[in-house]
Amino acid sequence: MALMITDECINCDVCEPECPNEAIYPGDEIYEIDPNLCTECVGHYDEPQCQQVCPVDCIPLDPDHKETREQLMTKYEALMAAK
Predict the structure, then answer these.
(1) Does the keyword Iron-sulfur apply (predicted)?
(2) Which residues are within 8 A (CB) of 75 and not within 5 positions of it... i.e. 6 or more apart?
(3) Per-residue model confidence as pLDDT tens digits over 27-83
C-alpha cells in the first residue's frame, strides 16, 4: 500500500526530505503523499522513512491504495528507470 498523511499532521517538515521518491509534498493544509510515487521505501530502505521520523505518528497505510510488496518493488523499479 501507499502511505497517507492524516489530519493530525502538524506540518513539522521532517517527513518531506526523508522521502527517497519525492512523494511527499506540502498540500493546502497538511503534507500529502502522491500514491503514484510512494513505495513505502521499498527498494530504498527496510522501513518507511517518513513513519520513522514523524513525531505525531500520522502516516498510516492508505486503504485506498492497496499494493503488495512485489507491486511496490515493481513501482520502485519503474520510478528508477524513469530517472
Answers:
(1) yes
(2) 36, 39, 42, 67
(3) 999 999 999 999 999 999 999 999 999 999 999 999 999 999 999 999 999 999 998
Q: How high is the pLDDT of residue 83?
A: 83
17: which DSSP letter?
A: G
State how far the Cα of 42 lies from the Cα of 72, in Å rounded to an integer.
Answer: 6
Give the Cα separation of 79 and 83 in Å (integer): 7
Residue 69: per-residue pLDDT: 95
Q: Cβ neighbours of residue 26 under 8 Å, at least 6 residues apart?
A: 11, 16, 32
Topology of domain 16-82 in CATH is Alpha-Beta Plaits (3.30.70)
Going from the C-alpha of 16 to that of each of 11, 13, 36, 38, 62, the distances in angstroms are 10, 6, 16, 12, 17
Q: How many residues in the chain?
A: 83
pTM of this prediction?
Answer: 0.93
